[in-house]
Amino acid sequence: MKKFGKFLANLIVKNVGLIVLALVLAFVAVVFIYM
Amino acid sequence: MNNYGEKLQNMVDGFDVSYVLMFVVLFLIFFMVLKVLWSNRARFLIGVFVVATVLVGFTISISDALGGEVYLIFELLLSLFVFIMYHTEIKRTLLDGTRNRKAVGHLTVSGIENIIDEMVRAIQNMSKNNVGALIVLSNDNLPEGIIETGTIINAEINAPMIETVFFPKTPLHDGAMVILENKIYAAGCFLPIIQNENLPQTIGSRHRAAMGVTSVANVTAIVVSEETGIISLVRGGNIYKSYATGADVKKALGDYYWSDQTAEDK
Fold it and tell me: Is the pTM of this model over 0.95?
């Protein structure tokens, strides 16, 4: 579990930009799908 | 536009848990797509993906004829297209992620320096004498099928041993030598040959095999040409150094040995 947490933290830190972009795109997509 | 505001209002009014689930699923898919594109330096395609997502979504949302389902299918197909386009790279990353390093011995700083020096010496000697060689620096992430085609040696790394394996007419000289940490793990291994029609005829089967194995596994290969004695370094399916010097080989070996596993021992 500790190893997975470390892996997840590492993944987030290394990919902050991509995560933000994916979050924005997912939000936009949900708005378009349910509109 | 009044209609557009109304649609937006209806969406906010009808908010439920399915919105959140859809958001999570789409976030995961988009993140994977963006990660694959970013890792493969396809920055332009990231732009295309973002613009297509926004533009098609906006077009469908103002259209009365098409619903959100069409947009969802479009997004899934677009993501699938990216995954299919980069399937080789995805396979390589997945294989690398499941690797399980074998503890083949404790590596000390002086031990690693000695191994690097021995390998550089062997490669330079083979280059000088036009002896063909193909050495793969494995992270224990090569497909098992490749290892099975060769012979397990599990020998100490030293220059005479490497040169003996690649000496012409010996049984193991024709295949690839697989290095795993501080051992010559196997030799005489047959590698997948890259199928690329655009490669010049001058690139021989040894180089093609190096390109093939580095395109399916995240490894570095060192090739010594039998005809010219030129040393090449191959990674990610590409020859990134065509005329490598002893210093280049030393750097490649340094990158291999001083990476994640040895950092723990330092």
Answer: no
Residues of B with CB under 8 A from a CB of A: 7-8, 10-11, 14, 19, 22-24, 26-27, 30-31, 34-35, 38, 46, 50, 53-54, 57-58, 60-61, 68-69, 71-72, 75
ipTM, interface predicted TM-score of the complex: 0.92
- The residue behind tokens 């063909």 is B132
Region of B163 on the Ramachandran plot (φ > 0 left; ψ -120 to 50 alpha; else beta): alpha
B155 is written with which tokens? 């020998």
Residue B91 CA to residue B87 CA, distance in Å, equals 6
Instruction: Name the CA radius of gyration of chain A, rounded.
Output: 14
Measured between its terminal Cα atoms, the distance across chain B in Å is: 65
CA distance B160 to B180: 18
Chain A residue whose CA is closest to B33: A22
